[in-house]
Amino acid sequence: MAQTIALSLVSHTNVGKTTLARTLLGRDVGEVRDEPHVTQSADMHEMVETSAGDRLVLWDTPGFGDSVRLAKRLAQSHNPLGWFLAQVWDRYRDRAFWASQQAARNVRDHADVVLYLVNASEHPQDAGYVDPEMRVLEWVGKPVVVLLNQLGRPRPADAEQADLQRWRVHLGQVRCVHAVLAFDAFARCWVQEAVLFDALAQVVAMDKRDAFSALSAQWLRRRRAIFDASLGLLCARLARAALDREPVTEGGWTDRLRGLGIALGLRREAGDSPRQLAMRALAERLDTDIRASSDRMIALHGLGGHASAEILTRLAKHYALRERLSEGKAAALGGMVSGALAGLKADLASGGLTFGAGLLVGGVLGALGTAGLARAYNLVRGAEATTVAWTDAVLDELAVSALLGYLAVAHYGRGRGDWAASEYPAHWQDTVAAAFAQRQEAFRHAWSLRADADTFGAIEPALREALAAAAGDVLQRLYPDARIDYGLAAEAAD
Question: Which CATH number does 4-188 carry?
Fold first, then answer.
């Protein structure tokens, strides 16, 4: 027989229930305003349904109002909850009591588990409404999982644990509370939902646990599908960048002499030189691709809005130049610059790379030498024309930036509205850098494939494996309590 399992989302008024409901459901429900008693009725929303007909639903309820006065009234009654629910409160003249009645009635009549939100920015001792509301929930007698909302930007695990510990200590004697978790409506990740579902599995009634297990697995498969699809977008973007080339238009002797002066550091390269034009074209294609794939990833996560429409403000140093040298030019200039390597800095009028992350790029202008060296260079490189391409150093930075971009989107709660770029938390950058460093050889191998086969099919699978492993490592480091085998994401993506 199909089962329906109901979660009732309750809290003091104006703590963020509807905002959290929107984030959890991935769609706009209810009304959100910064004032008390915005939610006027208890509304049910389906979260997930299995092929067997089992359903998991979420109730968004009116917020508790004057809970201190309410608890005092209940304490004076022989049958507190029965007396309270038997009253008919005036919705307009005694709105606080009416809202509290609706929330308590919903929990009594429908809830299998109560999700109780608290404002984590408050100290437990200062949140005077929590204790009386806990007494009301104890009278109802349903299991409660407390969620710390309004935590602010994602923080390192130890900082978050300090907030959790304060609330766990404060609620430790409340019999109906079975778990206290961090779950912010504005900055939660799907991995935290897995932690929440693990906690719920421990308190759902025994006769509904098989159904809940199936529902939980279905919910997680949906989230993992988004994770896999996001990695697919990022891998394809990186593969295109690795394989991209832009030819440098051959100029006359004036251009060649100007190029020699630049190589020797005797003059700066003009913004409209053939090399600069080629680099600008390469950079603009990269920026367009980053914004387009980021928009698709934002949409995958059920969000509105777009990645920054501004192109890169700066692409500084390091691009690769594959230059076809004429043997005559090499012979004529060989005595002056034989064996010399010259760095070339490209300052482009562009904007900040996606999500506000900067990009440093680097490269080397190839060696100029004798005619024999020129022949060997052209033969080994197989260059039919001078082209510019991204170096391995650039591609490494793009891979790191791609992982940071994924984290930014995956943590963007729907309650915040349309997507908007913001700065990364500092610990994300350290975590991503550490995970990337452990797999740098795998990325190096992927980049090396472009030398042998300039085809998307050769490099994309290698990138998929490396990026999936790095992303799983990052999420495991950020959320060590989540029991997820991230390796399955890499296998599912193959």
Answer: 3.40.50.300
